[in-house]
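Q&A log
Question type: sequence-to-structure
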Amino acid sequence: MKEKISLLPALFAALAAIFLTWLLGAVLVERGMGEFQVNLERHAESLAQEHRKANLLGALTALAGVDEDLRATVAGRLSPDNPVVLEKMRYLFKALDLDNILIIAPDGVVKAYMAKGVKTSLTGKSLAWRPYFIGAMSGQPSMYAALGSNTRERGFYIAVPIPAEQGGAGAPAGALVAKLGFDEIDQGLQQEKHPLAVLSPEGVVFASNVPGWRYQALGGAEEVARAQVDKRVNNAYKDAAPGLIALDAAGWIKKDGQKLRRFSASIAWPDHSGQWQLAGFIGYESLFGWPARVFCALTLFFVFLLIHAWLRSRRRAQDKTAQVVSLLDNSGEGFLSFGADLRIDSEYSRACESMLGAVPENQDVASLLFGEASPRAQLLRETVAAVLASEDAEIGASMLSLLPKEIQRAERVLAVAYRRIGREKFMVVLDDITEARQMADLLELEQKHLKMVVLAISDSRNFFEMLDGFAEFLTAENAVASVDACISRAELRRLYREVHTYKGLFAQFAFPEMPAALHRLESQLAGQLADSEGSEVCEPPGVLDWQMLKNAFAADKKIVSDALGEAFLKQGRALHLSEAQALRLEALSVSLLRGEPVDVGLAEVRALLDDIVRLRKLRLSDALQGYDRLLQQTAQRQEKLVQPLQVEGGEGVWIDPVYWKGFLQSLVHVFRNAVTHGLESPETRWENDKDEAGAIHCRIRYAAGQLYLNIADDGAGLNLPALRAKAAENGVPEAQTLDDEKAAALVFMDHVSTYAQLNDLAGRGVGLAAVRQAVLTLGGQVAVRSCPGAGTEFEFILPFDERAGVIEHA
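Response status: OK
Response body:
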């Protein structure tokens, strides 16, 4: 998004840039001028210590101090320009590259003279007025720079005293003078970029790197007048007056349209006539010129604009961040982030504190969520390390999806989601689902209640048979308990089986409280049976918690009565006639009351009587079909798949539900075991080339007063080795030697179960024992056949007479 800058911030940026440019310029100029002064002083020092002059001074001093020929010449004992002295002068002349060399007597008369490229000799002339001679005759070496009267070239005159006698005592006998050119100084000045000038004590430029400045006076009219009469340089003004480098009172000059400030440093030359100066000139333009100022100002201007734009963007980002934080804080969800070290960052939503009951900042996220020593905390640590090590984002997301999705905090239930943000950052999203979970639990409870009510209406016959049977069971057992007498172990086993059967029946009708209550009572009975092992007399049954069972039964019945009214329960197992049947029965009753004969051979009367006979009975196939609901419920809880129950035959078999009640109720164990023990998981069935949904079917057949009922599944079959081992544990040592047919029959023994874990569905080993007992009560037989990998089949052979029901022939 393009950032638009308004006029006012741009104006402020421009003013700030101009001010800072001026301030920066002042600092740079001040610093630059200070450095220029330091460099100038360093250059002046190098001029004072220039090696040619130092070497020359040393050589002249040494020669003058020891050479007798020089003393003889200045004393007049040797003639002027004598060959001996000239030879020595010639040697120095060449060795030190001198412009000229002189020997001067004490009266100032030149006794010997040698010059480069000059034919006129100064021998015999008086130089007594020359400053360098005067300085040497004072007993000290001196230097004097001047414009030569013969050569009209600049030069350094270096003069040393000639001692009157060897050792230097007394007044000098004369002076030895040599002249050097300015070439080396000119070369040194030319290497500097700023204007420099070597100034004589009178203020005349003797050397400079600026063309045209030589011999000009620095200052004003006074300095020009002084230069004209100065013998040092006046030979330069024979043709024209000296030029002027105008210097104002503040020390500034003008050169090429620029103002330059003068800086100076003393040159330590031993000139007795005055102090030489090295003057340097520098201006603002050299240190911080207009191009640099404009560039600096523009750069600062754009920098300020960028900073302004960044600050605006940052402020907007902060505002948006504050808005997001406010939204997150008020969203009710908890958001926190952490890095590879699992330490929680300082940014988190306020809801985290109330949800977790602690301040999350800088805490270990695994310990905070799950507890320090929790396996889930270790799982989180290992998963985060694995995700960081993985380069595949999808694999990392899959790993995070395996982490615990819920945690418990006091009374709160928190949903947890994990996200990877960036390369080494993770985010945890917490959602308080306590109310949602409570609502879901309430909804689930309501659905269970509704399911129970629907089943009570849709299968009222079996519903009321179950209620009536259990009410009779409670009455009978409560009477036994009130006597506080001991009962036999066999009676206790019967009670154990009945409790187990009713647990399955109540679960089939989706009672919410009764299955759990019966399961607890079943556990109490199992404990009593275990304690009384080897004895036929057990504890008084009064120790069993019958009141708990009554309370659960009353609570579940109240749910039905609240939904359907008390009348529904009081009505019980009502028999219903159609209007046509009622009219025919009314007509028959009137005829009988009148004493009229009734011909039962008439088809209409026969049909009415058959209807009355079957009015209380039900088809066996319909009774079995009712177990399909149990199959589907059990399969769902076991995460298995089962096809609808198939019932074959038996359409004409009508049974008396009262007579068959015990047997029909016991079949709940057969059907439930077919799912829990028989059918495999969908994955296992698919691997074994079976349909993922298991199949259970019933086949009914009647022949010669016997009813044949086969119930089969296509599951894994019985685990015969496990049955043998379990039977051997329960006191049947010969179980290991039984053949497969007899080993399969072990399923009907008490406490024999191959289920690994005890729960409310299986594991007691008592269900099929109850089935066998119910069959024996009817005088029937039961057999079981099993084939590994193909399934298990139960065959029931039951006597069928008028008490059992009727057979309707087509």
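Response note: The chain has 28 helices and 25 strands.
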